[in-house]
Amino acid sequence: MSLGLSAEAHDEYLKYMKSGKKEKEGLEVLDELLEDPNILTVGEVPLGLVQIPLDQIAGTKTSARSTSFSKSFYPLLPEKSEFAQKWMNLYCAHIEEGIREPIKAYEFMNRFYVEEGNKRVSVLKCVGAVTVDGMVTRILPARTRKKEVRIYYEFVDFYRLSRINDLNFSEEGSFARLQRLVGKRPDEKWTEDERKDFQALHWRFKKIYEERKEISSTGTEDDALLTLLSVYDYPELLNMSILELKEKMLKSREELKLTEGSTPELHMSPEDTAGKKRLFPNLRIPVSTSRMKAAFIHEKTVKTSAWTYAHELGRLHLQRAFDEEIHTSCYDGATEENIEILIEKSIEEGNNLIFTTSPPLLKGSLKMAIEHPEVKILNCSLNTSHKYIRTYYARMYEAKFLMGAIAGAMTENDKIGYLADYPIYGMTANINAFALGAKMVNPRAKVYLEWTKLKDHDPFDTFRRESISYISGQDMITPKAASRYFGIYRYDINDTVNLAMPVWHWGKFYEQMIRRLMKGSWQDDEISDKTRGLNYWWGMSAGVIEVICSKHLPIGTARLIDLLKNTISSGNFNPFEGVLYSQEGIVNRDPAMELSPEEIITMDWLAENVIGRIPKMEDLVDQAKPVVTTQGLGGTV
């Protein structure tokens, strides 16, 4: 060993000892941590040789060496001590050959505590190393309802598949979401090459994130990485250079500030303003209609999809309402693969306002909104929070409550059928509102819930077996496959009678949205909260949801429905107000309290008079999975 290297080691020791003495806190001691009676463990699991991220080493296993190091593992003992000499020898050995002998450590809650090799860790941390090899034993905490414990056990499951241990998420479901976003099945293990590819991307992301202060997140930096993966496809990110990745991160920096699972700010009516107060409330910059061209991009066609047909009726209503003031166009056949191409085409053709009309088109819409900030893009979906696009939906549960009241009044055996398609946000509210409406007029009413998107399943088997005649079917008619099985109908093999139907009046939504744009009110809706996006969620009061009763409905029942409709529209009645019971027990005990809009959107329970369940992803046909992946309830996916 050269004298020069020894002198360098001595100088380095003094430098880091000086830094260590400035730190007020010492190392954590795992044995002392586990003496806390509130921390329970359930056993140990040997993990073998593990590549340990040095920034996740929090302390020592025992207290024997805890006073020899500062919190950052800087050495503290005098420079002439035996400890200091060994530290300097290790430093020289690392510079000449590298430290290769694994340490011995324990892992608890994804933090590591050194049992043997504290000086090796200290040297490696001081020279800026990233990882150290170690023989690791995991100490498992007792399962509790604490959020951090639930997230930890999600990590344990993910680590079993990936052997990646340097991720830190703040929200539940993040590890499973990462597994999906990188293209892996829920139970699929990672290969060594896949792990290395991801870790290389992770390293580039962290380097940019730490360098650029304008890129920040309210959660962890890995929360921000997960957000980036939800905007850009994983293979695309893997192939980006560090400069290309930096450009994408800077463009999408407002999106990266969102936390996973954050709920959007809800704009509940056209008169509502979701954001901060304007300095000059009467000053608005109107949008010139001579420059307004609106494109509607649909997943399917009007002949094959009732949903697309309803939105096309909305577009035609909009065109009639404004005559020559604005120009609209539509693009059919959008998919997750070609949505970006269609949006790019619509922009090239002069459209500066774009509506993408179904949830699976959300990701591509968001990506193109980031690339084209000069264009306003809205996606028809619910409970999605994004900064570069706005989303919109309608409160169909208000109409479903009325449909339930009709069915409850008409049923002759207290049994009603309900057909649902996708287990997504808002659908459970529709089902429960229907059940509550039925129960309001008929306390004995039971709602038999069946799903049309289940594998190898005929929902009408249940209806026939239970002698159910009154059924809530699809909300809209598909022109190419028109039938009488829509709205509330009385089913008979020889004579089906329609009683009422709910209507998505998208034309009313689009017309009012355009009028807001013309008045310059788009800016009014901006919200100051950097962690949330904006969702327009209008209902009966805005005319976006309507109920049409047929001549077959008794006059008294029709009058009741008109009365209920008026009270809901005026805001004097909420279907989810008062004492509420689910299949599992009481949901709300306070007769004067009503569920918040956020609670209504995300409800994952079924009312006590519903016979049925919410299906899992694996129960669904393949065609349903893109919608559920984007908009599915937490328990579904």
Q: Count of DSSP helices? A: 21
Residue share in β-strands: 15-25%
Count of strand segments: 22
**Structural class, judged by helices and strands?**
alpha/beta
Level of helix content? 25-40%
Largest sheet: 7 strands, parallel
Q: How confident overall, as mean pLDDT?
A: 90
Gap from first CA to last CA = 59 Å
The side-by-side strand order for the widest beta sheet comes to 7-18-12-11-10-8-9
Poorly predicted runs: 275-285
C-alpha Rg (nearest Å): 30 Å
From the spread of the alpha carbons, the general shape counts as elongated
Overall description:
With 637 residues, this protein is α/β, with parallel strands linked by helices. About 2% of the residues have low confidence. The protein starts with a helix and ends in a 6-residue tail after the last helix. It has a seven-stranded parallel sheet, with helices on both faces. A seven-stranded mixed sheet has the order 19-17-16-15-13-14-22. A six-stranded mixed sheet has the order 1-3-5-4-6-2. Strand 10, helix 14 and strand 11 form a beta-alpha-beta unit. The chain has 21 helices and 22 strands. It is 37% helix and 18% strand.
Task: Detail the topology: elements first, then pairings.
Blueprint: H1 3-22, E1 28-29, H2 30-34, E2 41-53, E3 57-60, H3 82-96, E4 103-108, E5 111-116, H4 118-126, E6 131-141, H5 147-162, H6 174-181, H7 192-211, H8 221-231, H9 234-238, H10 242-251, H11 253-256, E7 265-267, E8 293-297, H12 306-322, E9 327-331, H13 339-348, E10 353-356, H14 362-371, E11 376-380, E12 390-394, H15 396-410, E13 415-420, H16 427-441, E14 446-451, H17 460-465, E15 470-472, E16 488-490, E17 497-504, H18 506-518, E18 534-538, E19 545-549, H19 555-569, E20 580-582, E21 585-588, H20 597-602, E22 610-611, H21 625-631
Parallel strand pairs: 1-3, 3-5, 4-6, 7-18, 8-9, 8-10, 10-11, 11-12, 12-18, 13-14, 13-15, 14-22
Antiparallel strand pairs: 2-6, 4-5, 15-16, 16-17, 17-19, 20-21
Helix pairs in contact: 1-3, 3-4, 5-6, 6-8, 7-10, 12-18, 13-14, 15-16, 15-19
